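User: Hello! I'm new to structural biology and keep hearing that structure can be predicted from sequence alone. Could you demonstrate with S1-like domain-containing RNA-binding protein? Please show me the input and the output so I can see what each looks like.

Assistant: Of course. The first part below is the input, the amino acid sequence of S1-like domain-containing RNA-binding protein. The second part is the output, the predicted structure written as tokens.
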Amino acid sequence: MSLQELIGQSTTLTVARKATFGYFLTDGNEDVLLHINQADQEFQEEDQVEVFLYVDSEGRISASTTIPEIAVGRYGWVKVTDTNPKIGVFLNIGLPKDILLGIDDLPTHKSVWPKPGDLVYITLKLSRNYLLYAKLASDPIIESISVKATRENFNKNVQGHIYRTAKVGSWIYTIEGFKGFIHESQRPQEPRLGEMVEGRIIDIKEDGTVNISLLARKEESQDQDAERIYEYLLSRDGSMPFSDKSMPEEIQERFNLSKGAFKRALGKLMKEGKAYQEGSWTYVKKD
């Protein structure tokens, strides 16, 4: 197998000769440069060295003693370092040159592209001209590393990274190793690919995969809604032309809440003695 065919993988080569700028390594047929900046120690001629082969910025096959967790055919979680709206996002796998996850492998809407710091589960692939690119893990790959959830996990809070996203929902791999789905109705907004999110398990399927909701639990949601309404009241000097008799359309437009959620939140404020209603208006209750 030629060195070209080993790009994106690790292999053991022999130090053929030293130079001021590094070492020339050989497989017996071809030589490749291990630059001194990519060597983790000093070597002597005839030493056996495990290296990772990649193509440098000038298109030459190069070696590094840094062995990335991922390789061609080997998957791992990799951090996003930068984005370019025209071509895709860049990932750090430990080499001098970041790896591109191309636009064709990313969601259609750039608003859900990964941001720097997000994690994606990828492998490496070689282009026709032997350049390295990132390739996202498919559903079967995620399934192969996942574990099955049990009924004991129902309603538990979980965290995980989004590994696929679409209009109908988002797919997540949790810290526990569960493979999950978040229906579009169970997310306040569409999370980014690679984003870490937190939710709770709302269903466990026969195959051990889970359905997850990113929405606040009912009591948490009610607290948040009540706080938002109270802040709006305060911003209007303690009064607003909304009450439990307001039209659903008006409530939706002003607060982005259903009338039922609005009434529950308003009822909480009144029960706590923070607000009261008169006619079609609501007021802050002052001491």
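User: So the tokens describe the shape?

Assistant: Right, they're a compact way of writing down the 3D structure. Reading them back into a model, for example: Helices lie at 139-145, 218-235, 248-255, 259-271.
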